[in-house]
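Throughout our pipeline, every protein is held as a single compact record rather than as scattered files. Nothing more is needed to write down the fold, since each code stands for a local backbone conformation. The record that follows is passed on verbatim for readers who wish to inspect the format.
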Amino acid sequence: MQMISFAFFGLAAAVYLCLYIIGKAVKKDHTCILVSNIVLLAASYAFLAYVDYRFALVLAALTVITWLCARSRRAIVVGVIFAVLILAFFKYFNFFAESFTKLFGADFTALNIILPVGISFYTFSAISYLIDVKREKIKSKNLFDVALYLSFFPKLTSGPIQRSADFFSQSEKRRNIGVENFSEGIQIFVFGLFKKIVLADRLSVFVDQVYATPNVFSSATVLLAVISYSLQIYFDFSGYSDMAVGVAKILGFDLPRNFNLPYVAHNVTELWKRWHITLSSWLRDYVYIPLGGNRKGKVRAYINLIVTMAVGGLWHGADWTFLIWGLLHGIALVVHKIWMAITKSKENAHSWFANCISIFLTFLFTTFCWIFFRADSFSHATAVIQRIFSFEGGVEQPYIWTFVAIAVLIGAVVWALIKSKKGAKSKKSGQNTSFITGFYPIMDLKRFWGIVAFIVLIGLTVGMAYTGNSPFIYGNF
């Protein structure tokens, strides 16, 4: 069941209606919370079983083991190992087995192993829960609570990777299911839907065509396709994250933000504070810091950074191209830290022109790395790179939707800058005005023009939507 489907819309609507009725009919807080959570758990497993009942069984097995191991501090390590092994078997067994047999020149027949939906996200959630219990950040929960945390269907397939403490602080209290949450949530969902089915999916047509046969196209067209993929993956993943946040908001939950205008980052360090924020913070807290972080000298810290990003690369997929992508970012992080140490310069403390140059160079590096992420193999990636730098002619295709996507992105950045400056002035004047930079421009649907603007957004989304088959990119991970 994809998030963009009548089945999902029907499920979300039915759950919302049930939660709304429960909230109005049940007066006792404890009973209301319990019944509401039962509905959410049942809907989450129905969502997964609708795709394949075996996926639900895998998640149920991981949930039981995670719950059992969290009850004993001595068994927590076992639970973490079990979660890693489940992920390794379903996602990496064929990759590592094939790589190992090739070293000895032997043949390998890949096993027909299905990849359960959302396994990368809920195994990382299980690991973080176990480690947080061990670190005494939270207390171990009952089986029901753990099951709901791992299976909560809005974030199951696309994240964000929500920390257990944040989730339990919301699931254990009475939530407001009403017009205000629905008004905000539906807007966030439609913003994400626009990113996905209008921008990302239309860009995918051009990107898929050029990447399939790069040697047919001119160098300029291949370069444009590479830039288009940078835009596609951002609008695709941030769009799905927005939809998850929106649906969760409608159901009374606040999920953490996952993107914050990553392509305005001045350097690769800042990029990873803006891109897939919940994954980068997860890697920092549960990989980088346990490896030693920066507590054991600079050289060790640099090695830990590279190892952490390599893990992040492999998390995305079982292929050498993902490992190369992760290593490139890890090396870039190290180079940036060395540069900062040598120059002793402060973050973004430069002229506007220097900042623009650094943003441009960071985007170019990020776009270059995306070639390995998108390519089917290392040889395919090198073929794309060679074609760009060959400066040869071929089919010219100045794809209009690339420029539309760039215009939308620039508009979002300008809007965020204006809001930031207004917020800064308000703070200087002593006013306690809060605002969200680079997030969602929520409209007041109680006002006439707010309703008009929202209807226009829906109309643009439906009217310009790409109706072909373009699956969610991160659904493969």
Remarks:
- Residues 201 and 470 are 6 Å apart (CA to CA).
- The chain has two domains: 6-175, 181-266+348-476.
- Residues 6-175 form one domain.
